[in-house]
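@channel sequence for tomorrow's demo:
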Amino acid sequence: MLVWVIYDIADDPIRKKVSDKCKNYGLYRVQKSVFLGDLNTNQRDSLAIECEDLIDPEVDSVYIFPMDDESFRKVKLIGQAFDKELVSDEVLTTFF
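structure tokens (generated this afternoon):
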């Protein structure tokens, strides 16, 4: 299932660790603090646990939004959207 990961993390080194975790799970950066990709339920849960262990819940936040294909097709891209070069062909075919 497609998953959006969106975060707001105050500490640069922690933000980098969360970014690296997202990349290690095969997610594609679509904005500085936004990743998109395909994860199964176990991967999604594991990523959530790993992020929870890294962040300070008093000041940081990480959102992991699963999105079904039907809802994803309804996404409206306005303005710059995201750099198509950073997103895999598999994810892009859902958009275009």
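heads up for whoever presents: The CA atoms of residues 15 and 58 lie 15 Å apart.
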